[in-house]
Amino acid sequence: MNFHVMTLFPDMIMDGMNTSIIGRAVKNGHLTLEALNIRDYSKSKHNQVDDYPYGGGAGMVMQPEPIYDCYEALCERIGKRPRVIYLTPQGSVFHQGMAEDFAKEEDLVFLCGHYEGIDERVLEEIVTDYVSIGDYVLTGGELPAMVMIDAISRLVPGVLNNEVSAEFESFHDNLLEYPQYTRPVVYHEKRVPDVLLSGHHAKIEEWRREQSLKRTLERRPDLLENANLTKKDQKILAILKEK
Ligand code: 6GU
């Protein structure tokens, strides 16, 4: 997977992704990440990239030409025209299914806006996907781009050490993950559930599934509508709801 981020703050992207598992995946070649400075494509004398909004109003608007030229230069260099994700609170709210869809691409471009937004005409020309990360307002698209890159990267084969773990975590089957425990067996007078110490693998799996169902019912009941539930799951849920 090759990530290309068009931004006015390239250091924010490179510094933010350098550490952690994503940084390691870049170093060992499972991913590439580059930040393209939109300002490098300004043709004005002071490298200006924004201007006053037509019709008036507060703030500045990012001009279309530097963004278009930045994208076209990238396309010429890599010989393809990848999907362009524009990070905006007006987009569809990002979820795991979208991460799975984006992870199938070989290249992805993220367009990070600032100020009051970007001239609509260049968005119409190059943007394929409008994505938000939630219903709150941020100062720019860089943090959302990093959130998406993290979520997509961990689905790319080889990025996580543990090949199976990406599938089995929260949101697998649209259920939340079961609680985890490690040593010591007794901590502040609380014991690790006996079943986990029993070595009985079938019983452990059964307990974990029940915990996932219970937790999802308590914390995110909305997820159950799209969950993949067996007859047995439905029975367990019915009992949990009675309590
Ligand atoms: Cl993608 N951008 C901005 N500026 N704010 C946001 C967002 C994106 N998602 C939620 N809030």
Describe this entry's structure for a reader:
- The chain is an alpha/beta fold.
- Helix content is 40%, strand content 17%.
- The chain has helices spanning 10-18, 20-27, 64-78, 96-102, 120-126, 142-153, 165-168, 194-197, 201-219, 231-242, and strands spanning 2-7, 32-37, 50-51, 61-62, 83-93, 107-112, 129-132, 186-187, 190-191.
- Strands 2-1-6-5-7 form a five-stranded parallel β-sheet, with helices on both faces.
- Helix 4 (96-102) links the parallel strand 5 and strand 6.
- Helix 1 runs parallel beside helix 6 (142-153), helix 3 (64-78) packs parallel to helix 5 (120-126) and helix 9 (201-219) crosses helix 10 (231-242).
- The chain binds 6-chloroguanine.
